[in-house]
Amino acid sequence: MLHTFVAYVEDKPGVLTRVASLFRRLNINIISLTVGHSERPGISRMTIVANAPDHANAEAGHRIRASLFKLEDVVEVDDIGKAPAVTRELALIKVAATAHTRSHIFELAEVFRARIVDLAPDSLMIEITGVESKIEGLIQVLNETEERVLEVCRSGKMTMRRGAHKSGVLRAMGVGTGEPQPEEPAFEHFADNI
Amino acid sequence: MSNIEKNDNAHLAEPITGPTRLTGAEILWATLVGEGVTVVFGYPGGAILPVYDALRKFPIHHILVRHEQGASHMADGYSRASGKVGVAIATSGPGATNLVTGIATAMLDSIPMVCITGQVSSKVLGSDAFQEVDITGITLPITKHNFLVNRPEDIAPAVRYAFQIAKSGRPGPVLVDITKDAQQQSALFDFAAAKPRPYAAHPMLSVQHDHLHEAAELIRNAKRPVILAGHGIMQSNAGEQVRSLAERMQIPVGTTLLGLGAFPASHLLNMGMMGMHGESWVNHAIQEADLLIACGMRFDDRVIGTPTTYSPNSKKIHIEVDPAEINKNIKADVALVGDLRQVLEQLLPLLPGRDGSAWLKTIADSKGSAAVLDITNLPDSGHLYAAHVMHDLWRITDGKAIIVTDVGQHQMWEAQYYRHDQPRTLITSGGLGTMGFALPAAIGAKVACPDKEVWVIAGDGGFQMTACELATIVQEKLDINVAIINNGFLGMVRQWQEFFYEKNYESTPLVSPDFVKLADAHGIPGAAVRDRGDLEAAVQSARAHKGPYLLNFLVEKEDSVYPMIPAGAALHEMIRRPGRNPLDEHPEDL
Ligand SMILES: Cc1ncc(C[n+]2csc(CCOP(=O)(O)OP(=O)(O)O)c2C)c(N)n1
After folding, report:
1. Which CATH superfamily is B3-189 part of?
2. Which chain A residues touch B144 with a CB distance below 8 Å?
3. Are A62 and B202 an interchain contact pair (Cβ–Cβ within 8 Å)?
């Protein structure tokens, strides 16, 4: 089962190892991990997507979050769970393409709202942001063309909870519909007790 | 403590107040003094030499160990006996790696401890310099936290922070690795300014009111409740509160191995130890229970057997300081996350009282025959059984000694036959099960509690893992009694081979030196005991002797610990002691 966590950690040497080592110790595979500066000075923000093995019980998400909290350098952890959130991934894709075949790739990129960010005599580079399925969709379509996909570089997921919308607004925005409702209000997530 | 008094540094006892310029090595000692440290266990080497050189200026007694594993176990034993933070010191490389087993032992049992290691100079860090090892990397998963310090001005803040981390929340070991150049260079030392930011409780630590009420409701309505008493009671100093809970609500108590002593063994409501080698009636009561109240315990696999069959019909209230323990092995119906003592203080006012007599009687009835079957059904041929040693030791010391055990059969027999009424009187490696723990941990315990009678109980196997520390006992003139339970086997492994590997005693028979002669070579008197009739006199001469004493108990070779729940089986699927049940023949004899 996939779990997505957002962790604020101190920006110090070795913090990444500590976080990674925790997942290794719990025998949980990290699917993606993005780290970068956050809005707070000296604090980095991580989005961690992890796959808890099936034998791990249903409370794996809770346990991972609690274990992350136990690391001294971890300041805050949020288990995104089913809460409404915006998730994005960035991918750079290099495709073999010559002057004759470029236009087809341009069209595909257009459909996926991707941008061409580099053009060379025998290749071009596409930049795409979006949810996982969109990126995977583009890669799949590219693979089905005559051209070869030379390189794929994906950032891994970055996730941020949505603001505290009134449900009407949320509906009007077309988000939160069709998705499972959050189990808990988005803003109470740091003080819950199991 | 006598060792401190004879320390020639005692005149330097005035703490350094106000900012002073010191070398990193001096800063380390001054910070330890400020943290209240009076004794450290260590072993010198090149990368920590500046620290050793500066020691003479500070009122701290250094105990020279014979192996750094001993230093970490001593710091651990010191902590377990006193509740204070134990400190171990080692040099870089092999010195640091030798600490590892002791650090892991402390981690698994949540023991507050600070380890200081020397590291190669920061200029050569990462170059595979002589005796360089990445000890912060190695100990990352077995410490609560660790630090690599390479500037003198960072030493005091790191060490003070290390003490705070070691003691706070769920305690544990912390390691501070200090490069040699940081020890040599100087910086401004200001103890007060190096204070860590205040400890912030885990953000997931919040006992919710409705949960308290839910828990109280469950306790009030339970018909067959059992309190599971764990190590957390000691750590949170909640013995009194657990006792009030048990007495007021008339709830029987079972303890974990590390919980022994947390609730008085002689208390009428104390059923005894649970788990793999726990008393059968305790495990039965847990299986039959309709409510378990877990107090500072973590449902370790040695305690639950298998999660799917564990106490199938009970609700579980789990009171625990570490939120990561909740629902890890056993699903809690109500989780009260927080310091046990504080949680119980909030819970107790909601519990007016209860009549528990029917359930207590059921347990007493099941205890009647089971007690006889497993515990006292030993052939009385005058021949010596380990159980006799434990029982008599308990009787003769009036249950008041600090017993430090090693790991194996003797550890379980100790837990079954020595009745601990006081907390911190049993010191044993529970979570990691570290052979070689007893002798060094006993040194730490004796140093922490010089006025207490301290006994080491070790198997012939485990004793030899750290026997070199006999020399430390002599050098420090420590009055520690050592009882070796000598069965000529790695007993507990032999028992598993007997039960589960068709008695294929591969690599478990053990040839040992003459332990009495070994003691003699250290200038420690001792005696071998073969017959039950000689037991009491031998124990008395050990106690009467001022200074260390060693007794080599030559016990039944192929005895096994009963009852036993095979690993992974259900609590009621225990292996019982075979043979005649004396109760059937002469009930009046028992
Ligand atoms: C360091 C270490 N190595 C191996 C083991 C596995 N082990 C557990 S009990 C035991 C046998 C202990 O034998 P002994 O010290 O003679 O004690 P006895 O069981 O006979 O009382 C062994 C080898 C262990 N617990 N610790």
Report:
1. Thiamin diphosphate (ThDP)-binding fold, Pyr/PP domains (3.40.50.970)
2. 70, 72
3. no
Sheet holding B145-149, edge to edge: B61-64, B39-42, B86-90, B113-119, B173-179, B145-149
The domain locations on chain A are 2-79, 86-154
CB atoms within 10 A of CB A10: 14
Provide the whole-model pTM.
0.91
Paired residues of B188 in beta bridges: B21
User: Mutual orientation of helices B386-396 and B409-417 as an angle, nearest 10°?
Assistant: 40
Nearest CA to B277 out of B305, B297, B307 is that of: B305
User: Touching check for B138 and chain A: CB below 8 Å?
Assistant: no
CA atoms lying within 13 Å on the CB side of residue B171: 26
Reply yes or no on domain B386-554 having CATH 3.40.50.970. yes
> How many Cβ atoms sit within 10 Å of the Cβ of residue B586?
8
Residues B34-43 have pLDDT tens digits of: 999 999 999 9
Answer yes or no: CATH 3.40.50.300 is held by domain B209-369. no
Report the Cα A84 to chain-centroid distance in Å.
Answer: 14
What's the whole-number mean pLDDT along residues A124-130?
A: 96
The CA–CA distances, whole Å, from A34 to A61, A154, B164 equal 18, 10, 31
- Does an H or E element contain B455, and which? strand B454-459
Neighbours of B393 (CB within 10 A): 26
- Within chain A, how many helices (H) and strands (E) appear? 5, 9
- Tell me how many degrees the CA angle A20-A23-A27 measures, rounded to the nearest 5: 140
Pairing of strands B526-529, B225-229: unpaired
DSSP calls for B380-427: -SSB--HHHHHHHHHHHTTT-SEEEE-SSHHHHHHHHHS---STTSEE
Question: Which CATH architecture group holds A2-79?
Answer: 2-Layer Sandwich (3.30)
Q: How far apart are CA B228 and CA B256, in angstroms?
A: 7
Contacts 24+ apart (CB under 8 A), B518-526: B518/B467, B518/B470, B518/B550, B519/B470, B519/B482, B519/B548, B519/B550, B522/B470, B522/B471, B522/B473, B522/B474, B523/B474, B524/B470, B524/B473, B524/B474, B524/B548, B524/B549, B524/B550, B525/B549, B525/B550, B526/B482, B526/B550, B526/B551, B526/B552
User: Do A2-79 and A86-154 have matching folds?
Assistant: yes
Distance from CA of B205 to the nearest CA of A (A): 7
CB B510 within 8 A of CB B488: yes
Going B64 to B68 to B70 to B74, the CA torsion angle's sign is positive
Which runs of consecutive H residues, i.e. helices, occur in B239-279? 239-249
In three-state form (DSSP H/G/I as H, E/B as E, the rest C), the secondary structure along B311-368 is CCCCEEEEEECCHHHCCCCCCCCEEEECCHHHHHHHHHHHCCCCCCHHHHHHHHHHHH
Q: Which residue out of B327, B331, B334, B339 would a mutagenesis test of the A interface target, given it has the greatest number of A Cβ atoms within 10 Å? A: B327
The predicted complex's ipTM stands at 0.85
Distance from CA of A41 to the nearest CA of B (A): 17
Token pair recorded at residue A8: 């604020």
Question: Quick check: B558 and B498 in contact, CB under 8 A?
Answer: yes
Name every residue whose Cβ is closer than 8 Å to that of residue A119 and which is 6 or more positions away in sequence. Answer: A102, A125
Provide the pLDDT for residue A2: 87
The domain made up of A86-154 is a member of CATH 3.30.70.1150? yes
Specify the domain boundaries for CATH 3.40.50.1220 within chain B: 209-369
> Region B219-236: what's the mean pLDDT?
97
B196: chain A residues, CB-CB within 8 Å: none
User: Is the pLDDT confidence value at B336 over 70?
Assistant: yes
Residue B163 tokens, joined = 């003490």
At B280 the pLDDT is 86
